[in-house]
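User: My instructor asked us to take a sequence, write out its structure as C-alpha cells, and then describe one feature of it. I'm not sure where to start. Here is the sequence I was given:
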Amino acid sequence: MRKLNFLLVTLVFVFLFGDAIAQEEEEKSVFTISGEVRPRTEYKHGYKSPVSEYKIQDEYKTTANLSTNQRTRLNFDYKANKVKFGVVLQDVRTWGSQKQLVSNEDKATSVHQAWAEVFFTKEISLKAGRMELAYDDHRILGSVGWAPQARSHDLALFKYNGAIKAHLGLAYHGGPFTGADYKAMQFLWVNGKAGPLGYSILAMNNGKTERGYWVSGADTTGVEENNAYSQTIGSRLTFKTGALSFALNAYYQMGKNPLNWIDDKSGTADNYGSKAGEGQEISAYNFALDAMYKVSDNLKVGLGYEMLSGNDFTDADREDENAFTPFYGTNHKFNGWMDYFYVGNH
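Assistant: Let's start with the prediction itself. The C-alpha cells for your sequence are:
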C-alpha cells in the first residue's frame, strides 16, 4: 500500500503542479504511460564457472539448468517546460518461484526509478531521486540493462548539456544499510567533441564503510564506523574516419580498501591493533583499445584488446590492492559473456 500511495501522490503532483507550470509558460505538457514485459529463457551449463563434476555412487554426473526469468515494468513519464518526472515500477521473478495461490505480498513490486528533474535554463538542470546511470561504453557506470533487475542509484545529478556536457553526481546514504554498494559517492563526467575526435573524462570518489570494534575478552566495548575512499580517474577517446573507428579507454585507481578491524584490549585477537584507515593501498589500472570497420550496413568487423591489473597471490607479503574494480559498470558486456569475471565475482 505504501508504494501505491506514493505513486498516487506522485501522479496528483504531476497533474496539478506540472500543469500549472506548463500553463504559465504556455507550453504543452506530455504525460506518457508505457510498459515492458520481458520473459527470457536461459539454458545454463558452465555459466559463471566451468562445469563441475561430483561423484554419486561411483558415477560422475553433470547438471544443467533451464529456467525462465521475467522483468515486468510500468513506466510513467511527465514532461513540461521546466520539469520532468519519471517513475519505473518493476517486478522481477523466475517462473515458478512464487506459489500459484499467493497469501501475502512477499514478492512485491519495487521502485526501480523515481526521479524529478528541474531545468534552470535550457542547458542546466538538477535531477534527483532514484535513477539509472549510463556513461560512455558502460565500463565504470552502466545501467546493466541485460540483467532482469538492472541497476539504479539514489543521488542528486547536476547536469550541463551545452557545447560540452558536464555531469556532477553526489550521493550519501545515511545507513546503515546492508548490501549497500557505497556509503558515499561523487563523480564528475565531462564529454565533448573536436572534429572526428570524441572524448570523455571521468573522475569518481567511492566511499565504503569500514567498522571497528573494541573488545575486552568476549565483550564488545565500542564500535566505530569510518569511510574508506578510493578514487578512479580516466578517459575514453573515440576517433572515426570513413568506415573505420577507434576507441581507447585508460583508467587508474588509487586510495584505500575498507577494513573491518578489531582492537582486542586483552591482546589475544589475531588482528590486534589494526585501526581504521589501515586498509590496503590501491594501485590498479585498466587499458583497452578497440578498432571497428564497417563493411556494410549489415556487417561490421572488430578487433579489441583489454588489460586489467590484478593481484599476485603468490606474494605472501603483498601490501597493496592491485586488482582493478570496474565498480558499477555493465560487466556482462566485457570479458566474455559466460561471466567468469566481474559478474558476481572479482
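For the description part of your assignment, you could build on this observation: DSSP finds one helix and 17 strands in the chain. Try explaining in your own words what that tells you about the chain.
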